[in-house]
Design brief:
CATH class of one domain: Alpha Beta
Number of strands: 19
Shape: elongated
Oligomer: single chain
Structural class: alpha+beta
Helix content: 40-55%
Number of helices: 24
Largest sheet: 6 strands, mixed
Radius of gyration: 29 Å
CATH topology of one domain: GroEL
Strand order of the largest sheet: 10-15-14-11-12-13
Length: about 700
């Protein structure tokens, strides 16, 4: 069998080579200090800066099947968890290189698959000891007597990964007394709010739990390369099912202050995380205004939206209650006439077009009569819908799908505002507070479907000249008790706008998953270092168990068991090598090392200290609890300084590891079947015994 494996392994595994090569494109995205890449459109020739691997893969020409699988794996991770894509990409590349190393050593493919899977499973169990309960973090921050000066947090530097400090977490005065008087929740240091001071004082008990659905299910899927995959769709559906069960069964915990958790999860991006904190405050303030609401407040990420305004100073970035979007400048006059008065509203959960029907109402597409000409039909439909809306005294229509251009033009002349497309979550929230009933088809409109109480106004009217010049104006739609919060993201550099939005959602999902799991990992590379140390321990155990005379066992045990013992050490070393490359790249991207070789040496030295300590877990916890005062030089008196550890989310990280290894092993086994044929990779026991006798 060894001879047969050598014949297989000496051939080229193109899939693994392509996977390793593709993952190099996102190498600079790993770590706290990311190097952005320019994406230039072929037709528009416009440049966009990005640090998102999914954005990058969307714009690459992925013609190979391996490239499509990689794109689908990253896309599935993004849609399910909103974070962890960079980890998935790098580990997929590192472990594909590890698999190639094993193949060069003539290790059987079945052994590579078995030992790598076993090694990762063992690492997942080992790192459970680094999990920190959310209650422990919150309990340390809820005591105001222990922390008399609230609001100035810095991050404790990790002994391995130095998290940069973007801006000092400065205490801000609370200027707002009522959400109705000042509806914005800004993230700037000169803002009206301090999350620690104002939020903890005005919110004595806040219930936080997972939302029922995911907001960004379709945000990043506009250019899906594969519609179906037997490998990834199954696991993704299972994860969604498990997530929904957790939402129903997970216990709700109370907390009065999340600032230390948020700072630890920001990974240096304090401005984006401050906006996320402001969104939590905004949702709480809106929940208090709901009439007869006895349901405890829960942070719901599905009721957060973003509105990007490129070319505008960053001082305009803030969180606002309600839904903010861009519409044509032609609607300016209508909005001015309708603003600041309660409007009757209808919600369309579908396309607002004449040809949008139930499948049972669609006629034959190739058969038409003279009276069924499209222009005539659409004119009749537009007249009917417009007459219905006027009779119902509707002034605002919110549509999930596309809108007929002819209908929009006719409604404009009748002072009727149509907003679309909007997400399902926006429609749902406005349905709850206005009493409107969502309808799928325009023919279902009647008095029972109409809601009331929506308010429309221009946002920052006359101040956003760059947007008004580009034929767009910004409107805000609100209603009493609406939980929706919109993050208005601005940047004077248009090319950075997309990256700014990605950073906001990454921070939002980190906080969201921490609250869902009710636990976090000790961050700053601690989890990966423990994995590497654990694998080294397994390698040493394999050396001790190995029999010097392995050939004597070949005739007494099965080939699978004996080959696993024979090659176990080599495969574990290759798997550990992938972790080592991951940590080296993270350390190098922090800017503390001048080269990757220096970063690799730094990781190796740190690992030797852990191994020599006798108890890697206790050593890690001790080192990560140390405080280096030099990093906290922010000009604030030492008595005002408070510290937050670096944290990582649990489930997204674990799933990124699993998806990365699953992808590598899928490509590895597919390569083997392509090279040799399936019949040669599935040898039965009789054929195996005959080969062992050769």
């Amino acid at each position: 069998m060894v001879m047969a494996c050598r014949n297989i392994n000496r051939r080229k595994h193109i899939g693994l080579q392509q996977l390793s090569s593709l993952t190099e494109t996102g190498r600079s995205f790993l770590g706290p200090i990311k190097s952005s890449k320019f994406i230039i459109g072929e037709r528009s020739h416009e440049s966009v800066l990005t640090c998102s691997i999914l954005r990058l893969l969307e714009n690459l020409d992925l013609n190979s099947s391996v490239g499509q699988l990689l794109y689908e794996a990253v896309q599935s991770q993004k849609n399910a968890y909103g974070t962890g894509t960079n980890t998935l990409l790098f580990l997929a590349g590192a472990w594909s290189a590890a698999a190639l190393e094993c193949l060069q050593q003539d290790i059987p493919i079945s052994v590579i698959v078995s030992v790598m899977s076993e090694g990762l499973k063992s690492c997942r169990k080992e790192v459970v000891s680094l999990q920190i309960s959310l209650h422990d973090i919150v309990d340390n921050t809820g005591d105001t007597k222990r922390y008399p000066f609230l609001g100035t947090l810095s991050i404790i530097p990790s002994p391995l990964v130095q998290i940069p400090t973007e801006i000092p977490w400065i205490q801000r005065e609370q200027l707002m007394k009522d959400v109705s008087s000042t509806p914005s929740f800004s993230s700037r240091p000169s803002s009206e709010f301090s999350f620690r001071s104002s939020y903890s004082q005005s919110v004595p008990k806040v219930m936080l739990q997972a939302p029922q659905t995911n907001l960004l299910t379709n945000r990043y899927t506009s250019k899906s390369r594969l519609s179906h995959s037997r490998h990834f769709n199954k696991s993704e559906n299972m994860s969604h099912q498990t997530s929904s069960e957790e939402h129903q069964n997970s216990p709700i915990h109370t907390c009065s202050d999340l600032v230390q958790l948020a700072v630890g999860l920001s990974h240096g991006d304090h401005s984006s995380m401050a906006l996320v904190e402001a969104a939590v405050r905004c949702q709480y303030q809106n929940a208090r205004m709901r009439k007869n609401s006895t349901v405890p407040f829960r942070f719901d990420i599905s009721k957060i939206s973003t509105c990007c305004l490129p070319g505008i100073p960053e001082s305009f970035s803030s969180i606002y209650s309600g839904y903010i979007t861009l519409i044509s400048i032609n609607y300016t006059t209508i909005v001015r006439e309708l603003q600041n008065q309660p409007l009757r509203v209808v919600l369309i959960d579908g396309d607002f077009k004449e040809n949008y029907h139930h499948l049972g109402f669609n006629g034959l597409g190739n058969v038409k009569t003279e009276l069924e000409s499209v222009p005539y039909q659409e004119k009749q439909w537009v007249d009917y819908i417009l007459e219905t809306l006027i009779q119902l005294n509707v002034k605002l229509v919110m549509v999930r799908g596309n809108v007929s251009e002819n209908l929009m033009e006719r409604c404009m002349h009748s002072n009727l505002l149509i907003i679309g497309p909007v997400s399902q979550h926006v429609l749902q929230d406005f349905a709850e507070v206005t009493g409107a009933v969502q309808v799928t088809y325009a023919t279902q409109l009647n008095e029972d479907c109409v809601g009331s109480g929506a308010i429309v106004s221009l946002w920052r009217a006359g101040q956003l000249n760059s947007k008004e010049v580009s034929n767009k104006v910004t409107v805000i739609i609100k209603a009493e008790g609406v939980l929706l919060a919109t993050a208005v993201l601005t940047s004077p550099i248009i090319a950075q706008m997309q990256a700014k939005e990605d950073h906001f959602w990454t921070c939002a999902y980190r906080l969201h998953h921490a609250l869902v799991d009710e636990k976090v990992f000790l961050g700053g590379g601690a989890v990966e270092v423990l994995c590497l140390s654990h694998l080294q321990g397994l390698i040493e155990q394999s050396h001790k168990k190995a029999d010097p005379d392995c050939s004597a066992q070949l005739h007494t045990t099965s080939w699978v068991a004996s080959s696993q013992e024979l090659y176990r050490t080599a495969v574990l070393k290759a798997l550990a090598g992938g972790w080592h490359r991951y940590l080296s790249s993270v350390v190098y991207n922090t800017g503390t090392c001048s080269s990757e070789s220096e970063a690799s040496t730094f990781v190796q030295d740190f690992l030797q200290k852990i191994t020599g300590s006798g108890c890697p877990l206790l050593y890690l916890q001790k080192e990560y609890n140390k405080v280096t005062s030099g990093v906290l030089n922010s000009g604030i008196p030492s008595k005002l300084k408070e510290l937050s550890k670096v944290y990582d989310v649990v489930t997204p990280k674990m799933e990124a590891w699993r998806r990365a290894l699953d992808l590598v092993l899928l490509v590895l086994q597919t390569d083997a079947e392509i090279i040799t044929g399936a019949e040669y990779t599935q040898l039965n026991s009789q054929e195996t015994e005959e080969l062992l006798l050769l």
